[in-house]
Structures are given as C-alpha cells and as structure tokens.
C-alpha cells in the first residue's frame, strides 16, 4: 500500500467542497492516495450508491470516523466518544 499525504494551502468552506457536511468544522483537507484491491473498490462504489454518499471520499471519511470511534470505545473500556 502506498500512502501519500499533502496539505492544501487554501482553507475549504465546510459544506461547499468535497461533500463536507456543513456542521463539520474543517478548515483544511489532506489529500490521501492509496492502493486497494479492485474488489474492495467495487464494494465501495456499491456502498456509495446504496447509502447515498455524495462521493467515495465522503464514504471513506465516514469509515475512518467509525474506525476511530470504535477504537476509542474499546481502548476506553467501552465508553464511546
């Protein structure tokens, strides 16, 4: 897997770009590039369509949030943040 990070020098307005919900306080987005198997990409595309995400990026951000929330829940003895 290759992971590539870069920071945008321009702040993004929440709700205006990349399908960011207007309640999410984001001032900068990081671009992440990685390789995944074709079968996983097809599942992601199906999920985006079925659930109604505006993009694959939105679905991936939500998946990362869920993963972090679950990790914190387990590491805090069952207390979710």
Describe the protein.
There is one protein chain. By secondary structure, the chain is mainly alpha-helical. The protein folds into two domains: 1-35, no CATH class; 37-81. It contains two helices and two strands. It has helices at residues 38-51, 56-75; strands at residues 4-7, 30-33. The chain is globular and about 35 Å long. Residues 1-23 have low confidence and may be disordered. It comes from Korarchaeum cryptofilum (strain OPF8). This is Transcriptional regulator, CopG family.
Write a short abstract of this structure.
It comes from Korarchaeum cryptofilum (strain OPF8). The chain is mainly alpha-helical and 81 residues long.
Please name the defining characteristics of this protein:
81 residues, mainly alpha, 2 domains, two-stranded antiparallel ribbon, globular, disordered N terminus
């Amino acid at each position: 897997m290759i992971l590539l990070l870069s920071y945008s020098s321009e702040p993004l307005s929440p709700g205006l770009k990349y399908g960011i919900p207007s309640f999410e306080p984001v001032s900068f987005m990081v671009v992440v590039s990685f390789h995944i198997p074709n079968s996983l990409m097809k599942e992601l595309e199906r999920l985006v369509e079925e659930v109604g995400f505006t993009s694959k990026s939105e679905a991936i951000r939500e998946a990362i949030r869920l993963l972090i929330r679950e990790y914190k829940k387990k590491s805090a003895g069952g207390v979710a943040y």
